[in-house]
Design brief:
By secondary structure, the protein is an alpha/beta fold. It has two domains: about 220 residues, 3-Layer(aba) Sandwich (D-Maltodextrin-Binding Protein, domain 2), CATH 3.40.190; about 180 residues, 3-Layer(aba) Sandwich (D-Maltodextrin-Binding Protein, domain 2), CATH 3.40.190.10. Helices cover about 40% and strands about 15% of the residues. It contains 18 helices and 15 strands. Strands 1, 2, 3, 4, 7, 13, 14 and 15 form an eight-stranded mixed sheet that branches. Strands 10-9-11-8-12 form a five-stranded mixed sheet, with helices on both faces.
Length: about 450
């Protein structure tokens, strides 16, 4: 299991314990057609000696920087900015190039980059920051934001990042790094679900424009069907597309306050009964059947790109999810970002922000896409002609930010039970929705 798929599952599980209008674009709407699914080569980089990356992955922050003897005059005059992260593999390669390039242009800032294992980074940062220490900058996922901001361990960036600067990034990514109306991070990259398709079984020109088309395709030929993973995160995209909503402004769940969620579950029941359409909470089974070419379409995220590209090569495509009767698919988007420690002295904040801005710049975002294959949050990033990243980027245009509401902690298990009850016919869709909304609101005291 890839680190990113594991991270998604681990995130959803942890949230359970602690307490996705773009009309589907098909080839006829893009005169140039879908680009070939061929990753671009990594950009060239001039040799540099200012930054030396860490090689070991340890639980304790491991400082790595240019030896003092190599640049004594510059090192002594520079302001040191400490950065903690958990990037490994190709991500670490991209970060090394990004930091090297930054220091080539900013000899007045010396970057001390420290690696902490992903599973321990949040706790290590929390403990250090609570004691008034820790790094100047933290790189991590947006779902850490709520707790860190509530504990006053992050610096709000509202005065640092005006609206014009925020507009450089994908809106949902910026919103995902905001809490209670305040911005706390600059986004590096993001994840969300979209529609993988097998070009050998279904041409781009025949992709479904709406959810009814999915059933029509499977009825015409079961091999043109779809695999639908029925956890709530993977299915949320359809609720707003059917006119439903999850939360009211006060945090009360309102799945039952319109017919949208029940209407979607009605569609899901019809889809489940159609040969060629597979609905299941068994992710591994669905992935295996898609790879065996039992159906042409699969709803999943960018964490599967490497695995599926290895299986299908240029025959793999990614497209936006189909519309519902009330509008476009709106999957949840979760971003990773760069956060500023609230304890950073005022005299170092400008230097820390300069580094944060460069890490999330169009140039750096292009490197992250082309070297690490991640979905960059900067709108002007060059995806290097990668068709799969391009497909996901189209989907991001209608995405909603994954909520930071504490009330979401109670949603996961009840929402998945709602889906299971409807698909098992243990309750009508309307009954299942009402029960889930009632139980979630009771658990949240709403």
């Amino acid at each position: 299991m890839s680190r990113f798929r594991w991270r998604l599952f681990w995130t959803l599980a942890l949230l359970n314990v602690l307490a996705v209008s773009a009309v589907l674009v098909i080839s006829s709407r893009w005169p140039d057609g879908w680009p070939a699914a061929t990753p671009a080569a990594a950009p060239d980089l001039d040799p540099a000696v200012e930054f030396v990356p860490t090689a070991a992955a340890t639980a304790t922050p491991t400082a790595v920087s240019t030896p003092e003897a190599s640049q004594p005059a510059r090192a002594s005059a520079a302001t040191t900015i400490e950065l903690w992260h958990s990037w490994t593999g190709s991500e670490a390669d991209a970060l090394t190039q990004i930091l090297t390039r930054f220091q080539q242009g900013r000899p007045d800032i010396r970057v001390q980059s420290n690696f902490v294992a992903y599973g321990e980074l949040a706790q290590a940062y929390t403990e250090a920051a609570r004691a008034g220490g820790g790094p100047d900058l933290l790189m991590g996922p947006g779902w850490w934001l709520r707790q860190l901001a509530a504990d006053d361990l992050l610096l709000a960036l509202d005065t640092w990042v005006p609206a014009q600067e925020r507009a450089q990034y994908i809106p949902a990514a910026v919103e995902n790094l905001s809490w209670h109306g305040r911005l706390y991070g600059l986004p590096t990259h993001y994840e969300l679900v979209a529609l993988y398709f097998n070009r050998r079984l279904l041409a781009a020109e025949a992709l479904p424009a709406n959810t009814d088309d999915i059933i029509d395709l499977a009825q015409a030929s079961p091999s043109q069907g779809i695999g639908i993973y029925t956890n709530f995160y993977h299915l949320f995209w359809a609720i707003p597309a059917y006119g439903g909503a999850l939360f009211a402004e006060n945090g009360r769940v309102v799945l039952d306050q319109s017919s949208g969620t029940a209407d979607f579950l009605d569609w899901l029941l019809r889809a489940q009964e159609t040969p060629g359409i597979f609905t299941a909470l068994d992710y591994g089974m669905l992935m295996d059947r898609f790879k065996k070419e039992e159906f042409a379409l699969f709803v999943d995220g960018p964490w599967s790109i490497n695995e599926l590209r290895q299986r299908f090569g240029a025959d793999l495509g990614v497209a936006p999810l189909p519309d519902g009767p009330n509008g476009p698919a709106r999957p949840w988007l979760g971003a990773d970002g760069v956060f500023l420690n609230a304890a950073v002295p005022a005299e170092r904040q400008e230097h820390a922000m300069a580094l944060a801005r460069y890490i999330t710049s169009a140039e750096s975002a292009s490197r992250l896409a082309q070297i690490a294959g991640r979905l960059p949050a900067h709108k002007d990033a060059d995806l290097g002609g990668d068709a799969l990243l391009t497909g996901f980027s189209f989907q991001a245009a209608t995405a909603l930010p994954l909520p930071h509401r504490a009330e979401l902690d109670e949603v996961w298990s009840y929402a998945e039970e709602m889906i299971a009850q409807a698909l098992d016919r243990a309750a009508t869709p309307q009954e299942a929705v009402l029960q889930a909304a009632t139980l979630i609101n009771e658990a949240n005291g709403k």
